Give the backbone structure.
Amino acid sequence: MTLRQLLNHTSGVYDYVRTLPMPPGREFVKNRWRTWTADELVRRAVANPPSVEPPGAGYSYSNTGYLLLGQIVEKATGQSYADEIGQRIIGPLRLGGTSVPGTSPRIPHPRPRAYLPVEPGGTARPTDYTEMNPSLFGAAGEMISTTRDLNRFVAALLDGRLIPAHLLDEMKKPGVAGATYGLGLDWYDTTCGIRVYGNDGDALAYQAWSYSTADGRRQATVGLTSNRPADPADAVHALLDDAFCDR
């Protein structure tokens, strides 16, 4: 597999998240404060058959790809991927509300609280799960940020402050024909014909979407802490339509 395939999720490497105990099971609660290493999470993934065979033959989202990319950054630079993000992105863009916490369970104030259905006593009930050991996600999603910082980051990505134009063009190339996902970059065509670029992400009960027009003149960032069984994507897309189509 190639770096491009890791970035556009066509590598086929199995998603380690599928191997983890999840709520509302008791085993999930036991792991709340556990420190995970990228190596052990990758081992859990590669113990399973590829989700795409051969690499590049199709799209299958994999958090394991980001763990591997984090390890590659560390091998190539001699620094942790967190240090590289700090020096190349957080510092230059002055993202004061953004951090890479490592194993720290603390989230700065102000913050929304997150709840998950867990079974500490045998019956599932909403439990405050705001704090946990984020090493479970590592380079795949441990970052903490704010709506303001997300807007600033996406704008800087699209206007050339972070990478040159030819690399941004590469990010906009879909991994498979007809897809709307390139190299870590997603796009959405609103109902009024405006294309917006960005991405979404989640970490258990936290979910976020951040999109911008190509010229950066209009942006929308949405954060949710719900753990509803239904996919909120349709509701978020409706909100994006409202935000970008002057409704």
Remarks:
- Strands lie at 115-118, 125-128, 186-189, 195-203, 206-213, 219-224.
- Residues 235 and 241 are 10 Å apart (CA to CA).
- The two ends are 44 Å apart (CA to CA).
- The chain has a mean pLDDT of 92.
